[in-house]
Amino acid sequence: MVNRKLIDQICAILMVVDLILGLFFLSFLLAFTLSDGGGFILTNPLVYIVIVMLFIIPSCYVVYYLFTLKSDAEEEFIFNRESYLKVKNLTHKDSEDKNAYRFSKLYDLDNEKREEIVFDKITSLSTFCNEFRYYCAEKLNLYYDIEDIRAFISNLGVSKLMILQGMSGTGKTSIALAFEKFIGNVLEPVAIQPMWKERSDLVGYFNEFTKKFNETLLLEELYKSNFDDKIYIIILDEVNIARIEYYFAEFLSLLEYPDEDRRKLEITNDVWINDPRMLKEGKLLIKDNVYFLGTANNDESTFAISDKVYDRSMVLNLNKKATPFKGEKVKERKISNTDFKNICDEKIKEFTVSDDYKVVMKWINIIDELLNQNFSINFGNRMLNQILKYVPLYVECGGSKEEAFDDFVSKKILRKLESKDFLRLGPAINKFLNELDEYYGKDSMPLSREYLKKFVQF
């Protein structure tokens, strides 16, 4: 590659030397003509030709250099959005030197050889859950209750964001890593840092000094997800060691869009002609095959997760270790996200025209009224849509609608009580429990009852 900047500098130095020689020549002529009486040299046309060559040409070059070529060679290829639209039809010129690109890691991903993927077909979420549970036990010596596995898979079908919380050592990160191994797409967890406050901490930033983009692990994984239909589980380890509402704010908004084409994350606010091919006008598509799983520890070293995050995510509580069991031998399953999404959408659609839908809607209306009467809390349409997806998926995973409803209420709805005054909740909770007996049956909703024990002594 020609170093245009170096050539310009050499030419400028030569022109300065040329001007110095010209001044010396002019002074010599002046001295000669004065000493010899002058006249005949000044009338000689060759003198004027030499003056033009020595002064006019270098002077023009100096003016041109000062006003046109004073920018760095790299900046010649930087375009704003308007200039990009003018040159968008230019062909992309490949270069063997990846240092010429500001996204060196994404450059490698663009040129990485990829083989065609043969995906396994999912016929039943119930079978899929059992196979995953056996895989954890047999291959990894990780043991989970079937209810937790069902909740994990169902959560993936409801939301692109899941919060895994519970005591340390119960397998929050392990279940996410195990699922990655099971589906044959292992990604390195993103370790959240306490000082993170902006989205640039997640996706990186452009370094003006080096003229390179500081590419993060998350940016690489998001970029790779654009090449195929594999399921990408991005683990945000210790998600609440910093305020997730700050560094993850833009993702929270983008993941709300059901239309994949609207989930475009701005990586840069300008465009270079040799940017990675998956960046469109500086934006990267967050595809439908990307799922964020955040592990959370609730102790004095972490921040409380706000309702904004909880409302947009699904929750999996892992508060105890399961009893070891003998698992069957199963192999990894290469799963297509489209296949997984289609089977989830199909079961949700079937549920909306079934009798179970009417039953669950009745339960929802009752719990909404009881919560409003006893605690003055309500839940909106977002949570309503989540529960109407979660129940049929949990049932398809092998559970019952009663278990699914109780699980959702205990994890998503009753947690709103944590903003209330604990000392005044006792009488209201006892009344609420009696009403659960009346409307749902005695000893119904055991998970919800267990959750309420943290607020009052029975």
Q: Stretches where pLDDT falls below 50 for ≥5 residues?
A: 69-96
CATH class of the largest domain: Alpha Beta
What fraction strand?
5-15%
* Sheet with most strands: 5 strands, parallel
Give the tally of structural domains.
Answer: 3
* Structural category: alpha/beta
Number of strands: 11
Separation of termini? 78 Å
CATH hierarchy: architecture of the largest domain: 3-Layer(aba) Sandwich
How would the global form be characterised?
elongated
Strand order of the largest sheet: 3-6-10-2-11
Explain this structure.
This protein is of the alpha/beta class and 458 residues long. It has 3 domains: 4-70; 105-332, P-loop containing nucleotide triphosphate hydrolases (Rossmann fold), CATH 3.40.50.300; 353-452, no CATH class. The chain has 18 helices and 11 strands. The strands form 4 sheets. The chain has a 5-stranded parallel β-sheet. It has a two-stranded antiparallel ribbon with strand order 1-8. Strands 4-5 form a two-stranded antiparallel sheet. A hairpin with a 4-residue loop joins strand 4 and strand 5. Helix 5 packs across helix 6, helix 13 (337-352) packs across helix 15 and helix 15 (381-396) runs antiparallel to helix 16 (401-413). It is elongated and about 125 Å long. The relative contact order is 0.11. Residues 69-96 have low confidence and may be disordered.
